[in-house]
Amino acid sequence: MEKINLKGLTLEELEQFVLSIKEKKFRAAQLFAWIYRRNVLSFDVMTDMSKSLREKLENMAYIGQLTASNIQKSTLSETQKFLFQLNDGLFVESVLMVEEKRRTVCLSSQVGCALGCTFCATGTLGFKRNLETWEIIDQFLAIQRLTGVDISNIVIMGMGEPFLNYEAVLKACHLFNHPDGTAIGNRRIVISTSGIIPQIYRFTDEKQPFKLAISLNSPFDNQRSSIMPINKHHPLERLIEAARYYAKKSRQRITFEYVLLKNVNTRQEDADQLKKLLSGIPCKINLIPYNAIPDSNWQPTIEEVEKFYSYFLNFPAVVSIRWSKGQDIQAACGQLAASTGELSV
């Protein structure tokens, strides 16, 4: 009989498992707490269970674990980048950012990405596969084990397009949110999409409690299509309609992410069109100065960033410049590419 990986299972699925091996239903709650709250990797340490039960579990199940191949620490900020090897030999990266009271992890949802955004290092890898729910979760748990940091916030903004791995990502987020597990508040979990329109409607209609971010990056269709090929299939007009639908139905504010690309999307007409496009939508706009990747020349100066920001001084929405952390270790927004050439742990 093939062993079952218990990491990634919900409480209800764990209940089905323990009943299937002729154990009492309450054992599922014990397993859930040991795996997600106490973050253990062995049945041996589950001291509220008998030795015979622990041996039974050892023979029938296991607790999945990613391998931390490399860790890099930024010299510019309290940011660390983690390179995880998956069981099939592929790699993903995750980032821990510590600033004042926020301790945020940026998690990956896919190995590589199929969308090919021209400003993103992940897009150069192509798409390998979706991550399973347990692989998304263990990025979080592994970082806690390795650092001892009590993580307060989660952003699904690492490698991949989360809404192209919708079921696994949402299942992971609900597990993160469970009060008997890691207990991360639903408003402290942000899922970012490049604009997969059907899934935005699904996310809305399912009344998902997590925060939604949309990577916009241009207010013009032709321009957006040139830097984000997904716009050819999910054009701006329909994307903004979906955003308005979400805002109206959920009564939640959307975060629009706008990567500032020198000589591409930083003109006053870009700002004016962006304000027109987002008019009436309860939102926050994050202006993200481009973080350089190889063979690129789109990094704006500080003066150019501040000038673009000045165009929004009277705009009735929160607009902020999000200076990325960890540029020196290629851990900033758009720089994740699962490089294996880093220093070993």
CATH architectural designation of the largest domain: Alpha-Beta Barrel
- Number of helical runs? 10
Shape: elongated
Strand order of the largest sheet: 3-4-5-6-9-10-11-12-13-14
Which residue ranges are poorly predicted, with pLDDT under 50 across at least 5 consecutive positions?
Answer: 340-345
User: What is the CATH top level name of the largest domain?
Assistant: Alpha Beta
Order of helices and strands: EHHHEEEEEEEHEHEHEHHEHEHE
Rg, nearest Å: 21 Å
Q: Could you describe the largest sheet, including whether it forms a barrel?
A: 10 strands, mixed
Q: Give the distance, in angstroms, between the N- and C-terminal Cα atoms.
A: 35 Å
Helix/strand structural class: alpha/beta
Tell me what portion of residues adopts beta-strand conformation: 15-25%
Helical residue percent band: 25-40%
Q: How many beta-strand runs?
A: 14
Number of spatially distinct domains: 2
**Mean pLDDT metric:** 91
CATH-defined superfamily of the largest domain: Aldolase class I
CATH overall fold name of the largest domain: TIM Barrel
